[in-house]
Amino acid sequence: MSKRLFALLTASAVIVAAAGLSVEAQSKPKDKPTNAPTFVKLENAGKLNLSSAGNPFKPSNFKQSKKPYAGDRGIIGYDNREPMLSREYPWSAIGRIQGTTTDEKNYHCTGTLIAENLVLTNAHCVIDPKTHQLSREIAFLPNVINGQVADRQDIAFAERVIYGTDFTADTITNQTQDWAVVRLNKPIGRKYGYLGWRNLPVSTMINNPKKFSFVGYSGDYPNPSKRGYEFLSAGAGWTAGFQEGCSIVKEDRDILLHDCDTTGGSSGGPIIGWINNQPYIVALNNAEIKNVNTNEGIINLAVNLSFLDRLAGTN
């Protein structure tokens, strides 16, 4: 670990908490479970039964699009994000994690279907890093656009959560193991599809700058009062932001550094690479480092995906 990055992790504000919410734009279905999800540590999880083996799946009735919006929307102002407005694949497989803590506080993150009933997100989206308390309820709302899913009966809930850290370890371990795989109570990936993943060599990612995309339900995006976004009336955090042309800029041991636009709520968002014209998650966004004095962003952090290969038994 370089001295500079270690100093940033310990002296700067590492933002990992998802944006809290007091209201919900869409009510949850009536079939929500009465029991809290079961939490399982990585060492006790065994192997996932993944017939996909990390490959993407597009339902036959879905169109595929590399752009999550229609036409050629221009970038408004200096923000490089565009709203994710498409219900086509693979955007259909990315959604909003809606959680409730043990003390009844609501929060949200981003998650992505990687199998018919599995969602990939961050550990800090299911476990409070400060209190180490497990979330009481975790819902996945697929392909939320302006506060709405295509069918509210497809809102699914966590039954089982496999996590990499409960944030009782050292700073570096907590950072590199900040991942969770959530098993849902419905196989909604059959309907919405799911992304593949590839644990690419870090050198390959670094040597392909501006080739990746990022999607996240950031708590500061979109701003309905901004010109061009007035129709997104559900407010910030209820339509995902999309950025293309971002990069993995460096790796410091197992910590990936990237330049995609992120803020609270985009935690757990996928960094996507298109390989042979198919979408794969290549890294998992989980934090941003800000200057504690100026609140300006310094660098963003991501988790590499070697743990998924281990869980799937492919290495």
From TrEMBL:
Its EC number is 3.4.21.-. Residues 1-27 form the signal peptide. It comes from the Bacteria. InterPro entries: Glutamyl_endopeptidase, Peptidase_S1_PA, Peptidase_S1_PA_chymotrypsin, Peptidase_S1B, Trypsin_dom. The keyword Nucleotidyltransferase does not apply. Residues 75-315 form the Peptidase S1 domain. Pfam families: Trypsin_2. Belongs to the peptidase S1B family. This is Serine protease.
